[in-house]
């Protein structure tokens, strides 16, 4: 791209959960290979808006700066993605930034993604390896399973999938596809499998897997290309079988 | 049973009821209609078999009306909980999700109207035969609305069958879901052609 003198950003801002929102435009000096996080850092260094007025620095969250923690998710030109992985040179300008709309707003671009972590706790998204005595080494995982399970393990609970999902919203209690996919991951683990019914029964409750409406937006927007709809369909099968077991009895 | 588990079962049953029995009845219904292309007598014969089945009221109630009412009312409840976002996320499947809900609402209105026009009139003493339908669709507006109604119902069925295969865990891989998507699209086009031809056969 030809050298530009400045980068223009239009940012949706809001001072707090109860305040009203507004947009503010910024123009910052162009440097090659910048990403959105770097642009936000520029604004923080020098919080002056495009009209030349001094303003409050824009608040956002970020931790890893390399697309593995998921905390810098926001709407960039309308699409949910990570600010640290969005290169300015690949974006059309002015760049529109807005907070994710599905989660409670904290301030400016920062939202509270607690519900995603609550869902992970709810579905028992871990493996029990501790006992009151040494349990010894666990069984091995077949390579064929490891391959796809590794892909699922890349989920960073960023919330992009929940943002794009039409069924995750204030009117519904759907937990969203990310935690459902984690059930598939932990149930695939030979030790995790021992408590698979616990996880399945959680996603069979209200707000669980049947709240998915198969719009498949989640799989389109996931920055980690996690096969969310395959996970959902697979667990549809597993929960169907589990229902029959619950109804007819099993050992 | 706790409320959460009921929801899981209701959603699965909602999906199932759209195909068994409603979808199966729909296909039989469309085939009976199509017999109208063979003339008045052929249609009256096919429709007569349906109308003269033993235990007719029992079948009508439990194969059609009860599942229909459940599917429609619960479907509206589910659809209203979604926040439509096709304009932001214009992916093919998201359009399917959107149209599934739109055609669901249209189908709801159309089916009530259609039951009023035919079944209720029959209960009030009219003779449900070729002539009755022909009289209805000679009006171009009615014919137009029936065409829209039939095509919407068929889309809703074909797309709903696609999601049923996922909801019940039958098609899991993207490849199998692609395959059923194409197969059901052909099914939709084929049955729509039959449905449209049947309506024009009445209108002639
Ligand atoms: S599944 Fe993908 S989009 Fe969803 S939270 Fe995990 S990484 Fe983010
Ligand atoms: S497929 Fe299901 S979970 Fe994924 S976006 Fe659509 S409704 Fe949400
Ligand atoms: S800062 Fe961790 S993903 Fe962007």
Quick gist of this model?
Chain A has 251 residues and is α+β, with helices and mostly antiparallel strands. Chain A folds into two domains: 106 residues, Beta-grasp domain (Ubiquitin-like (UB roll), Roll); 136 residues, Fumarate Reductase Iron-sulfur Protein, Chain B, domain 2.
What does this structure look like?
The complex is a heterodimer of chains A (251) and B (204). Chain A has 251 residues and is α+β, with helices and mostly antiparallel strands. Helices cover 32% and strands 13% of the residues of chain A. Chain A has two domains: 6-111, Roll (Ubiquitin-like (UB roll)); 114-249, Alpha-helical ferredoxin (Fumarate Reductase Iron-sulfur Protein, Chain B, domain 2, Orthogonal Bundle). Chain A is elongated and about 70 Å long. The model of chain A has no long low-confidence stretch (mean pLDDT 95). Chain B has one domain: 3 helical TM bundles of succinate and fumarate reductases. Chain B contains eight helices and no strands. In chain B, helix 7 packs antiparallel against helix 8 (174-203). Chain B is globular, with a radius of gyration of 18 Å. The relative contact order of chain B is 0.13. The model of chain B has no long low-confidence stretch (mean pLDDT 95). The chains are: A alpha+beta (251), B mainly alpha (204). The interface between A and B is medium-sized, with 36 and 34 residues. The site of one iron/sulfur cluster (SF4) has 15 residues of chain A, from helix 4 and helix 5.
